[in-house]
Predict the 3D structure of the following.
Amino acid sequence: MTVGFVGLGHMGFPMARRLIEAGHAVVAFDAHAAALDRIVALGGDPASSPRDVADRAETVLASLPTPAAALEVTTGPVGLIKGARIRRYVDLSTVGSRTAAQIHELLAQRDIVAIDSPVSGGVRGAEKGALALMVSAPRTAFDEIKSLLQTLGRPLYVGDKPGSAQTMKLANNILAANVLAATAEVVVMGVKSGLDPAVMIDVLNAGSGATSASRDKFPRAILPRTFDYGFGTGLMVKDVQLYLEEAHALGVTADLAEAVGRLWEAAAQQLGPESDFTVVIKLFEAAAGVTVESADLRT
Ligand code: NAD
């Protein structure tokens, strides 16, 4: 099957590669030529714009950084909406329910079905085809696209209300934002008291303090101080802001999300939006005057 793919960054590239490896013809576009070249080198077919992709594929997937990028790609001057062949648009990005509903409405005017499918599982999940894909779409559209999505991971049907999968994704990500910051805070406290951080992580993982940060992010990117997990600090700020928008629109309290949001904004300001989000620990380290480094890794 011919599949379009727009946005070939940390997540989009490994997802598009899996589609090629599964035997699909992938018509690809990215605003950065180098990103497009990488997928063309693996057999992808380059397109000159989102519209060009949509002229050549009925099903177009996208993995874009921001709501503004998703709006531009779908409904901008050379957007997918102008393409002749496109019938369904699958958004793998995190854009929030408001933007998703807006895109859904605009594309519906051209009989293009918008399928929300934000993902969780990071770059490694994308490489292994082990993502959780949260899908909101008409049930029939989900059934049509399910086997394609299974190339990327596990599709989980959330409902048919446009944007509801985005709400689910933001609920997931605010928890991830909280537990990474909370785990960094307590590990820095322990190191200040003289504990070995690698021992702390082992103990947390054996006990009730285990989090996705202690299981995955600390061993992989923080304890070895590589800070290369593959998710940008600026994207975390965007996800927290989108969560807060949803919570405020619903009139529910979000005290924890607001507190952690201030922390992530400070991280983006001080360490840069392009930095890997695991660098957030450096804020706690600087305040405490310690570095989180295992005795084993120092020798
Ligand atoms: P990224 O910044 O690495 O990649 C985005 C890609 O989109 C880039 O290659 C960029 O050139 C391209 N792009 C931007 N604007 C464009 C435009 N107007 N037209 C065409 N291409 C354009 O981001 P990422 O980490 O791959 O994340 C993509 C989405 O997936 C985001 O919404 C993010 O929140 C979400 N997400 C990321 C992760 C992760 O671990 N990185 C995990 C889950 C979800």
